[in-house]
Design goal:
Blueprint (H helix, E strand, L loop, with lengths): L27 H7 L6 E5 L4 E2 L4 H11 L4 E5 L18 E4 L6 H5 L25 H12 L5 E3 L1 H5 L5 E3 L4 E3 L2 H5 L3 E3 L4 H12 L13 E5 L7 E4 L7 H4 L14 H7 L2 H9 L1 E5 L2 H6 L1 H13 L8 E6 L2 E5 L8 H8 L6 E2 L9 H6 L2 E3 L1 E2 L10 H5 L4 E2 L2 H14 L6 E2 L1 E3 L13 H6 L19 H11 L6 E2 L7 H4 L3 H10 L4 E7 L3 H7 L4 H17 L5 E8 L6 H13 L8 E2 L7 H8 L20 H11 L7 H10 L47
Parallel strand pairs: 1-3, 1-4, 4-5, 5-8, 10-11, 11-12, 15-19, 18-20, 21-22, 22-23
Antiparallel strand pairs: 2-14, 6-7, 8-9, 9-13, 12-13, 16-17
Helix pairs in contact: 2-7, 12-24, 18-20, 20-22, 23-25
Amino acid sequence: MEAARDITGYRKYWASRFGTAPFLPMSRAEMDALGWDSCDIILVTGDAYVDHPSFGMAIVGRTLEAQGFRVGIIAQPDWHSAAAFGALGRPNLFFGITAGNMDSMVNRYTSDRRVRSDDAYTPGGEGGRRPDRSVIVYAQRVREAFRDVPIVVGGIEASLRRIAHFDYWSEKVRRSILLDAKADLLVFGNAERQLCELAHRLGAGERIDSITDLRGTAFLRRGVPDGWLEVDSSRIDDDAGEQRGASGGQPEAVAVDVASLAARRSPSASRTPRARGVVRLPSFESVSADPTLYAHASRILHTESNPGNARALVQRHGDVDVWLNPPPIPLTSKEMDWVYERAYQRRPHPSYGSAEIPAYKMIRFSIAIQRGCFGGCTFCSITEHEGRVIQNRSEESVLREIEKVRDTVPGFTGVISDLGGPTANMYRIACKSREIESACRRPSCVYPGICRNLQTDHSALIELYRKARAVPGVKKVLIASGVRYDLASESPEYVRELAQHHVGGYLKIAPEAISEGPLSKMMKPGIGSYDRFKALFERYSKEAGKEQYLIPYFIAAHPGTTDGDMLELALWLKKNGFRADQVQAFLPSPMATATAMYHSGRNPLHRVTRSSEKVVVPKGLKVRRLHKAFLRYHDANNWPVLREALRRMGRADLIGNGKHQLVPAWQPAGAGGAGEGRRKPCATRPFRTQHTRPK
């Protein structure tokens, strides 16, 4: 993987003389108090401004401030006119626009497209404080207010819409968000690296339309420049050299030979052409008209996602090309420490007064120790956004942040609510060889089994846990991030440490399904992995004299799931005494592999052709509600629809009052609708099961 410029090594911009702001200003009065006549960069976000490193705009703002730029924030503006977007005046360099920590459509609508009544990222949890497709709306209003100021869009909403993408809420393929937002540049991923360079280059006088060489960016151009080798995406799966390590979970891809990689990646063979190679995807018009081509484009996009070997991608939209540069080089531990140790106040902006922001309440005592995920779950947006190479903070940095939380955060009682990230237990876990990691094209390091090139040693994480709970003033360190249980089982000592010291009675893990049909389309391990972890967890909990339970998360109506699969899961839940309080049906998020399955009925984990594997896709409100009803088999409101389904499936033997039967033949008074109903108490394991992805 090529070296990247250290983001801590830039010469600070001249405005650094103004020093560090207590909070990034949200008003002209705050700017005046800081002695600013203008902002260099203004960030517009759909979230309330919480100056905490779990909030994307706080990280971006404080990172740019530390580079010497004056950064202002416009949080949750009234989008009905351009007035609110001029509150801080005209920025000298650019507007940065994001929907916030969540995609605005996921934030506002349930998987059944019902409007949510609340918003965890808004003071008071009030819903309706951001528009649908926030990035587009905010960009349009900024353009109305300041016609010629550069606009840079980013965050998860823009990141997942950087090319033509299937939009679940309109049931059609939409074009790249670059065109609808009329933005000058799109940054994808966490984006600190590209934003630092972009700001300095604009500050030095470069025009934004001339900055086309930044990794992790997308922009519009007309045609392929001279000196580039264009490759049609339809050829990629035909090349033997491309298929190796990119077969989407085929057993032969589990190990990669170092010698053959070295030969394939020699300067005379692969590196030079690849650095100037661009893969042409089917056009927006083509993927809109042909779901099979959409699945093919999705496969190529995910194949070209490793920063060590990805090529640029280009996709025609009408008379212009959307050009995607390769993903950014992951941050080093030194850079991660620098980013997370900026001058965060770790609380909401004072303008919110005493109003409670639910998302902040959840994370105010939590600490991020890593980024990225190499699991590759097809329904999840983490890998598409943060990448599969794990980026780690140093142990010393994490411990310093724990001390800062202890000493500065109001209400701290001695409990750190989480040490984690997208996944709890990928800290300092990586490929055994940088060369192999840079050449690999597999979508997952742990499916169909754990790659033998992946070192699974949890000792660094165990040591971090031990030092964290030994910090004076810390009574308990909980792990709230989801544990990758197949990986954890490779280190029984980690499971012991986790169970005996870091669980507050319940631990959430995500089997998602138990049948091979949906599991193979999710790229999740079989239920045997869950059983192995469960045995270890219960053993070590018992040794510690603790009564603790696993909270398994499941998802309904995922591509590859049949009614029979959901019945099997319902019977497994009943046998094991699990009663889910809340359940989630699959939500096709933009750019996810499972979304390509949902839209096309094809499996892009393998080469996509007109005759390639078809995927069963549960579509329509009726079947989606049935699949959710199977997960809530204990709810009397679901019994009528389940009885009807069981008779249709030829399983009427499961209707009755026996222990082996799923639902009774009788119906209580006042129940019988197809709604969710109220929770009934469980005498065995009274916990809540809920699914929350995509993030």
